Amino acid sequence: MSSPVNIILFGPPGAGKGTQAAYIQERYGLTKLSTGDMLRAEIAAESELGLEVKKIIDAGDLVPDHIMIELISRRIEEPDCRNGFILDGFPRTLGQAQALDLMLEEKGKKLDAVFQLKVDDSALLSRLESRVSEQKQKGLPARSDDNADTLARRLKVYHSQTKPVLPYYEDKGNLYVIAGMKPIADVSKEITALLDDKVNAK
Ligand code: AMP
Is the pTM of this model over 0.85? Predict the structure, then answer.
């Protein structure tokens, strides 16, 4: 790949962003940046930040913008992002989206595409239940925010604060809507077709 490709995977909790980000990371050598994973690592390490955000995450609310912006701004400067990155779970507010544009400009980077994984709300609870049982099968603990009550809150937050970011990218002309209800492999195929074009255009 000659120039970096930087993309966003956008969608509600349980839409399959993490799964598709892992696939894209493997296929194109881009670095997956999951803000949820970054925050959970801080909690596991019992860092100051981890202690600050644990309650917010367990309640299904959003961590304040300034924290998230700082976290991502530092992370995309790391050498493993030189070939490009996949943002999974960021931005989640209009403020984050605007700050992302500013930081990319400052760092001489560019956003190539936003893939919106469109999934019906009714499918999300059963997807989350499968995620919990998969973790169990692997002998791993389930996420503390993967339960029906918190999912309801996370979905509400998605609709009120995150979904309104979509017109921002639509206006920029780099939003691609992906049918996220299809089987995982079909979703990957759809993303690959679009991403191949982006990569080949570089
Ligand atoms: P995720 O793993 O992406 O579902 O994120 C888990 C939780 O981490 C979310 O429900 C939020 O509490 C928090 N979080 C992750 N990314 C962000 C973000 N970009 N802005 C605010 N909070 C976030």
Answer: yes
